[in-house]
Specification:
Radius of gyration: 21 Å
CATH topology of the largest domain: Rossmann fold
Helix content: 40-55%
Largest sheet: 8 strands, mixed
Subcellular location: Cytoplasm
GO biological process, one term: L-proline biosynthetic process
CATH architecture of the largest domain: 3-Layer(aba) Sandwich
Distance between the termini: 35 Å
Enzyme class: oxidoreductase
Strand order of the largest sheet: 3-2-1-4-5-6-7-8
Number of helices: 12
Structural class: alpha/beta
Mean pLDDT: 95
Family: Belongs to the pyrroline-5-carboxylate reductase family.
Shape: elongated
CATH superfamily of the largest domain: NAD(P)-binding Rossmann-like Domain
InterPro entries: 6-PGluconate_DH-like_C_sf, NAD(P)-bd_dom_sf, P5C_Rdtase_cat_N, P5CR_dimer, Pyrroline-COOH_reductase
């Protein structure tokens, strides 16, 4: 299957690298499509040429560009939208002859550890799209009304974990651990904990580490006093509401 990207930004590039196949790609003049093609093979094309030659087209441009990008296009090709906004109905309104599937992927797709949220659809093309995104990680199907909320977990999640790793690493450095070693300690602990959480729940894991009155209990209390739960709840509200 020949995949075409309309837009070649961070998310499109992560998907393309995860799939590892030559791509057809366009951009708005940034040069990113050419860099992606130089890396993976394929061709940098105009939007119209991508639609003409691809078997499946992925909309990866800015959401506000939807109407302008679609205006000159006449197509019945299957379309996958990874736009942060824009319902299936809104996208089908500007591409009336195309089946449209919405997906919210995330950047770990580049190393085939992504999580993609797919808006549940009865269109036959949905199963093809699901299989395609399973090549770069886990796919979770939700009703479209929940897609923005699910995307607020997975899409922005890598940035949150990166911030946590940065802050925790800085704290270790402040107490004398060299930066490279601190980063290894934090990231490998996070990776191991994530793997462990696939076999247990969060409460059991915390209780397994936390002794009454011990250092872990004191550290957890400090995180609670710092408002970690409230901050994550507010971040979710801001992302979904934005």
């Amino acid at each position: 299957m020949q995949i075409g990207f309309i837009g070649s930004g961070n998310m499109a590039s992560a998907l393309a690298r995860g799939w590892g196949d030559p791509v057809l790609a366009s951009d708005s003049g940034s040069g990113r499509a050419q860099r992606l093609v130089d890396e993976l093979g394929g061709e940098r094309l105009s939007n119209a040429e991508v639609f003409e030659r691809a078997d499946l087209v992925i909309l990866a441009h800015k959401p506000y560009q939807l109407a302008d990008v679609a205006a000159p296009i006449r197509t019945d090709k299957p379309i996958v939208s990874i736009l942060g906004r824009g319902t299936v109905a809104e996208i089908e309104a500007v591409y009336p002859s195309s089946p449209v599937i919405r997906v919210e992927p995330n950047t770990p797709a580049a190393i085939r550890r992504g999580v993609s949220v797919l808006a549940a659809s009865e269109k036959p093309e949905a199963q093809t799209v699901k299989a395609l995104f399973e090549r770069v990680g886990t796919v979770v199907e939700v009703p479209e009304r929940l897609l923005d909320v699910a995307g607020a977990v997975t899409g922005v999640g890598p940035a949150y974990w990166a911030l946590f790793v940065e802050a925790y690493t800085d704290a270790a450095v402040r107490h004398g651990i060299p930066a490279a070693q601190a980063a290894t300690l934090v990231t490998e602990t996070m990776a191991g904990t994530a793997a462990l959480l696939q076999h247990t729940d969060t409460l059991a894991l915390r209780r397994g580490v936390t002794s009454p009155g011990g250092s872990t209990a004191r550290g957890l209390a400090a995180l609670e006093r710092g408002g970690v739960r409230a901050a994550l709840a507010q971040a979710m509200d801001d992302v979904v509401g934005g």
